[in-house]
Amino acid sequence: MSPARLPRLPQPARLLTLALTLVLAIGLFAPSGHAAPAPAPAGRSAAPTPTGPAPQPATGTPERGDGERQFASADRRSPLPLDTRPAEARPAAKTLRPAAQPACNVGDFTGRTGSALVQQVTSVDTGCVNQLFQLTGTDANGAFREEQMTTVAYALRDASGDYPGDDSTAVEQLVLYLSAGYYVQWYHPADVGTYGTALQTAIRAALDAFFAGAHSRDVSSANAAILGEAVTLIDSAQENTRYLWVVKQLLNDYASATWNPAGMANAVNPVFTVLFRGHQLTGFETAVEADPSVLDALSGFVARNEDQVGGDYGVLEYNATKELARFLQYPGLQAKVRPLTEALAAQSAPSGRMVYQWAAVAEAVGHYDAANCSYYGTCNAVDRLKAGVLTVSYTCSPSIKLIAQSLDGSQLGTTCTSLTGQDAYVHSAVRDNGPVKDDHNGTIEVVVFHSSFDYQVLAAAIYGIDTNNGGIYLEGDPAAVGNQPRFLCYEAEWVRPAFQIWNLNHEYTHYLDGRFDMYGDFNAGMTTPTVWWVEGFAEYVSYSYRQVVNDGAVAAAARHTYKLSDLFDTVYGDQERVYRWGYLAVRYMLEKHRADVDAVLARYRVGDWPGARALLKTTIGTSYDADFDSWLTACANGACATTPTVPQVPECTAADTRQLGADCGRGNVAATTGSYAHFYLLVPAGTQQVKITTSGGTGNADLYYNPGGWAYTDAYAARSAGPDNSETLTVTNPPAGYVYFSLYAQQGFSGVSVTSRF
C-alpha cells in the first residue's frame, strides 16, 4: 500500500482538513475481493523495476490506486493522510493538477537547460508544475533527466539561503519540480534514465540548505505547505536516514494550540511517511539503533497530544503510534520500543475514544511481537475490537445482513431499501438465470464503519486488509461451503448531516455480478482482461440505479481517448480508463449491442474466458470503433446527461390480470394492509428455473410462493420478505403446470411491478 499524504488544495484554499482516502461509487478488485480505489500512488510493491520506496507526488493524491493487493501477513499500511475531500473531488492519478489550472506548455521545460530552465520553473505557478507529474516518454526525459534535476537542485540550494518563509522567491516551485522528477523517474525509469551520485550530491545540498534556513521552521500558513512539500521531497529522494533529525525536530516542536490554526499539521504529517518508507532503505535500522531518540520523539508526541484523539487532528496521534510500534520488528530495538508501546496500550482500550490508539498497537504487536501479546494486553485483539466497535447487527433479507458501528433504525432501513432494490435492477440488466454453477455465496455480510477514519484504522485491525481505498468486497471462494462473502464500507462523514454510505451500490454490484455473472473466484475471472466489464458494470449500475449523472465519464467522452476495441484490453492501472472508460464501454454496449453483451456474459457465467475474449477481440474486434466514437460525441454533447434505464420486460398479455408468463410483468399492483394480490403461472415441462421479482411503488409487499395452490403467509414453500417492495424468489426445477405467487401487504402498497422469467 502506498503512503498517503496531504494533497495540496487549490489556491487560495490551503485549508487543513482531516483524514482519509475516499471514492464515490467505484471499486477495485483485490485477490478474492474487490477493493475500492485508493487515493495514493502505488508504493514500492507496485513498481516493476526500481528498488527502494517509491517517491510521492507532492501535489495531491491520485484519485484511485493502481490495483493494490491486500497485505494480510505484513504490516504494510502507510500513514493516513490529512484530508477529507472525497477522491472524486481530487485530480485523477498522474493528472495531479487542479482542474481549474490553465494548461502548461511542456516544451517550456523540456526545451530549456541551465539557468533558462530554472527561470522557467520559478516563473510559473505551482499549478503548472503540478501537471509535470504526468509526463512520459521523451517529455519525461527532456524535463527530468539527471542533468536537469541536478540544475534545479542546486537552484533550490541557492534559493534556500534567502528563503523568507513564503513562496515569494518561488522555492515551492523548485521543490515541486524535483518531487515531480523523482515521481516520474520512479514509474518511467526507461524514459527518464538513471539517477546517480551527481543528483544525490545536489539534492543533499539543497535539502541541507533549506532545513538550515531560519524561516524553514516558521509557524505560519505561508510556510506550512512549503515545509510539508520539502519533507515529502526527503522521501522522494530516498534521503530518509540522512534527515531523521528533521523528523525529530518537527515531532518535538509541534504544539497543537499554535501549529494547527496555522495549518502546520500539513508539515508534520509527512514525517510519518519518511519513517514508514525508511524501513525499506538500507542503513535506516542501523541509524535508529545508533540514535534511538526518534523513538522518544514519537512517544512524546503521542503523550503531549492525547487530547486530539477523536478530533480533527487525531490522525496525527494514530500515525505517531503506528510508526512507533512499527519499530518492534527490530530485535535490537525491542528493549527500547516495548515499554513505550505498552504504555500506549495501557492508556487506551478496544472501545471508546482511545480505540484507535489501541488498535494501532494491537495491529503492530500482532505483526511483530505476537508471542508477547499478554505483555501489551492485546491478545485476542480481533474479537475484542469486534465486540467493542461493531455493535449493531441487522438482517435486511435472507441474503443481506448488516453489521455496523453506529447505524440507527432509520439508517438501517434506508440502507436495506437501497440494497434490496438493487437486486431487481441488476437482474433486469444482466438477464441472468440464477447463480452461476458452484456459487454458494447466498448471503452477503455488509460491514459499515462510522467514518472513513474508523474504516482506515479499525477495518485494517479487525479484518487484516489494506484500507487505503474507499471500501472493499471480499469474495472468498464461492465454491467453498460455508464461505462468507462480505464487503466493508463506511459512512461518508463529509456529507453529514445527510446520510450516505460510500461505495455501497458499487460494491454490492460486485457481489451480485460475481454471483450471477462471473464463474469462480476473482483470480479465475482475471485470467483474461475482464476489467472493462467488472468495474465498468459496477460503475454503470451505481450511477444509473441511483439516477446520478456520471459527470467524470461525460467529460472523459469528450476527450475521445480510447477506441472501444482498446477498452476490451483494460487491466488495472490507469484509473480513468478502468472506471470512467469502463462505464462508457459498458453503457455503449448495453445501449447499442445488447445481444453481444448477452453472448459475452453467457461465456463468463461458465468460466469460458477464452471464448468471451474471442467474441470481444475477434468477432467484434474493431467493427464498433467508429460507431463508439460517434456515440462518445453524442454522450459529451448531452446524451449521457440523463441516467440510463434498464430495459423492462413487456406487460403480460393474458386476459386474466393475475396470470403471468415467460419474460413479462404486471404493473400498478396494489393491496391494502393484510390483503393479498394473487398471481399464477403455467410452467412448461422441463423448465429449469422460474424467477419472480417485485419492485417499485409504495408500502411494503412480501412475496410468497406455493406450488400447489394460492400462496398465503401460512401456506407457502418459499418467501422473500424484505423491508420494502424489492423482493426476488427463484424456484429451481419447478413442477410442470400451474404454480402460484402472492404479494402480501405487510403494509398497504400500490404501484408495484411484478415480473416473471423462466
Describe this protein's structure.
- The structure is a single chain.
- This protein has 758 residues and is of the alpha+beta class.
- Among the domains are: 313-388, no CATH class; 526-647, Orthogonal Bundle (Neutral Protease, domain 2); 659-757, Jelly Rolls.
- The chain is 44% helix and 13% strand.
- The protein is built from 31 helices and 16 strands.
- Strands 1, 2, 3, 4, 5, 6, 7 and 8 form an eight-stranded mixed β-sheet that branches.
- A hairpin with a 2-residue loop joins strand 3 and strand 4 (400-404).
- The radius of gyration is 28 Å and the shape is globular.
Q: Any chance you could write out the topology, listing elements then pairs?
A:
Blueprint: E1 28-30, E2 33-35, H1 107-110, H2 114-123, H3 126-130, H4 137-144, H5 146-160, H6 171-187, H7 189-192, H8 197-212, H9 221-236, H10 244-253, H11 256-259, H12 265-268, H13 270-278, H14 284-290, H15 293-304, H16 314-326, H17 334-346, H18 355-368, H19 373-376, H20 381-389, E3 392-397, E4 400-404, H21 409-430, E5 444-449, H22 452-463, E6 472-474, E7 486-491, E8 501-502, H23 504-516, H24 522-525, H25 531-546, H26 551-559, H27 564-567, H28 575-592, H29 594-604, H30 609-620, H31 625-639, E9 659-660, E10 664-671, E11 676-683, E12 689-695, E13 698-706, E14 718-720, E15 727-732, E16 737-757
Parallel strand pairs: 4-5, 5-7, 9-11
Antiparallel strand pairs: 1-2, 2-6, 3-4, 6-7, 7-8, 10-16, 11-16, 12-15, 12-16, 13-14, 13-16
